[in-house]
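Because discrete structure vocabularies remain unfamiliar, we reproduce here a specimen of the format, pairing a chain with its fold in token form:
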Amino acid sequence: MAYGTAHRMIVTKETVKAGDKVLILGASGGVGTASVILCKKLGAHGIAAVGDDDKGEKLKAIGADEVVNYKTENFLDYVKKHHGKPQRYSYDTGVDVVINYTGGDTWAPTLRCVKLGGKILVCGATAGYDPTEDLRYIWSFEIQVIGSNGFTDDDFRALLSGVVAGDYEPLIDQVLPLSRAREGLARLADRKFIGKIVVDPWGDE
């Protein structure tokens, strides 16, 4: 489901192209890791924002070009330092696309990361659906805010065809039998996972 959501948002809607600089917030989750993989496949330059250095290394292994640990460095400051502060009359600074399905207090700095004519992709709001807004950045930088809701059968078929062909390899944190599902939930709650945790009802103990 997470990969179908990312596929629709990025591939079906044609929001990311080769050469784009794409900042991915919450990059260690299901939609986040799928976004890293899909952006790499499209030839984009992926910047993964995570809260753990070890997760960052794993994301580099699946295709992230850069990693920023948002617990030690504000992601907006990172973008300004490494890609330049966006300018209203130049396309040379900032990032082309931000994938933000967290919302909350990440929204205001997201608006300030995007270059002139750039895009913000939204498919969720895990940190809050009613963030502080600043419309000045949307019109001044001609930002496109593009929503994407779930996926269709066609999206899922296209994604699975890519998996079968070896184009995509989903990142699985661990596979647990049903009897150990509680461990998986605890791992989720503690944010100690990367990618997806699979519960196999027929798995061995």
